[in-house]
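Bench log. Compound arrived from synthesis this morning; before running ITC I wanted a structural hypothesis for how manganese (II) ion sits in the protein. Inputs:
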Amino acid sequence: MAEELKGLHKYELKPLPYSMDALEPYISKEIVDVHYNGHHKGYVTGANNLIDRLNGIINNSISSYDIHGILRSLTFNINGAKLHEAYWSNMAPSGKGGGTPGGKLADLIDKQYGSFDRFKKLFTEAANSNPGTGWALLNYDTENSNLQILTIENHFMNHVAEMPALLILDEFEHAYYLQYKNKRADYINNWWNIVNWDDAEKRLEKNM
Ligand code: MN
């Protein structure tokens, strides 16, 4: 009798938490549309295609494969899917985001960086230092109750395991080029106007 296997979990493209034009003028509707329906969706589809392959390997219907290549590509696509999900929810419609954080996140930022302005300056510098495609993150080290500003190159470099991300900035060209061309620093500066600090605070409290 054939064993019924549950199979590996597949990913979903979650709906955007606001309308396509909600981030204007800081991020155009056209960018959000291409970014969400093109790029983000592509990572979800890519991850699920690879999971289909893995399920085929597990149930012996696929016998010839490159496991290293599959897993490397799976990491790239799952990170792409998850990082984008967090990136969207980390932003709020224009007029409802930006400003400064409150709550426990504000306390931690003050304790570690001295002030929000010093934190913002360092995060911005980190984001600007990322050489090409990548992400800037504020992570939370649950073991040491410590904030960490980090960058990810591409989708899988320099990411510390077991540190949940509180704040995520997409720096791939697709995130800004249609509107900002080569002025990535302007995109980064404008992004602060739509940061959803309530979302960052929720992520912190979930992990404290
Ligand atoms: Mn992206």
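What the model suggests: The pocket of manganese (II) ion is lined by residues 35, 39, 84, 170, 172, 174-175 (CB under 6 Å). The mean pLDDT is 94.
ITC booked for Thursday regardless.
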